[in-house]
Write a structure and sequence with these properties.
- Helices cover 47% and strands 20% of the residues.
- It contains 10 helices and 7 strands.
- Strand 1 (63-67), helix 5 and strand 2 form a beta-alpha-beta unit.
- Helix 3 crosses helix 5 (73-82) and helix 8 (170-192) packs antiparallel against helix 9 (197-207).
- The two termini are 22 Å apart.
- Bound molecules: S-adenosylmethionine.
- S-adenosylmethionine is lined by residues 16, 19-20, 23, 34, 68-70, 73-74, 93-95, 98, 117-119, 134-136, 139-140.
Length: 243
């Protein structure tokens, strides 16, 4: 089994609990930190990801799930991309505090939110035309189980996109690693006032499978057309697949 494993967690249940507590603890400052630490590039990545699924989002009555939605910025990018198309978009996360913020931010929109664990979704089989997960999948305690659950709730032909951090190579990679491993945890800890999460972030990215391995896992889980598109020198990237 391979998945997120925050320091001190001995099994899948403990890892999931530690992840939920961590995100709940930083929820009040999460948006601010995201934008500061990424110099607002996060907005670009969400928008670019939503654009990649323009075809599904333009379909009347498409049903979309944004998994690990946090405070809902990826979810809102999907809604903006859909424009006037009458899509149904639902955001799901297992941190109540994150969802509360998502709900406040989106009060004037048709977005809907639900508290749910990505490894045990409260949906029947084959419900969604599109499923996205931005910077959340890496935090699952079991990646293969996460992929199986995504596959289960997608309709045949349905698409999914996992946007997450990568590890860029070359000189840019070297400079970025100094920022990501030293500067980012220091600023994150200072602004959030919480010590663990911003040291966990680079550790979790290091632990996450490299693109080739992740694509293999997607294919083995049963996805077709598995691909990875690097964003911003590979600092982030989008995994795509189709059921
Ligand atoms: C880094 S945040 C990303 C939030 C948002 N998607 C974004 O792009 O800003 C990761 C989110 O994944 C959620 N998460 C992690 N593991 C989860 C799980 N097993 N089930 C549901 N949500 C989970 C956390 O609660 C957190 O809100």
């Amino acid at each position: 089994m391979i998945g997120a494993s925050p320091a001190g967690s001995a099994d899948r249940a403990e890892a999931a609990r530690a992840v939920r507590e961590m995100f709940t603890s930083i929820a009040p400052r999460y948006d601010l930190l995201n934008h500061v630490l990424s110099c607002n590039i996060d907005r670009l990545w969400w928008r670019r990801t939503a654009k990649m699924f323009a075809d599904v989002l333009a379909r009347p009555d498409a049903c979309v799930l944004d998994l690990c939605c946090g405070t809902g910025d990826m979810t809102s990018a999907l809604l903006r991309q859909a424009g006037k198309a009458p899509v149904r978009i639902l955001g799901a996360d297992f941190s109540h505090a994150m969802l509360q913020r998502a709900s406040i931010k989106s009060a004037a929109t048709p977005l809907r939110w639900t508290e749910a664990d990505a490894l045990n979704l409260p949906f029947g089989d084959q419900q969604f035309d599109l499923l996205t997960a931005a910077f959340g999948f890496r935090n699952l305690a079991d990646y293969d189980a996460g992929l199986r659950e995504i596959l289960r709730v997608l309709r045949p032909g349905g698409e999914f996109g996992i946007l997450d951090f990568g590890e860029p190579g070359g000189l840019i990679g070297k400079a970025y690693r100094v920022y990501f491993k030293r500067v980012l945890p220091a600023i994150g800890t200072m602004i959030s006032g919480v010590k663990g999460p911003y040291a966990y972030l680079p550790a979790s990215v290091e632990r996450f499978p490299a693109p080739e391995e992740m694509l293999d896992r997607m294919r083995r889980a049963g996805f077709r057309e598995a691909s990875w598109t690097p964003y911003t020198f590979g600092i982030a990237g989008l995994y795509r697949g189709r059921r």
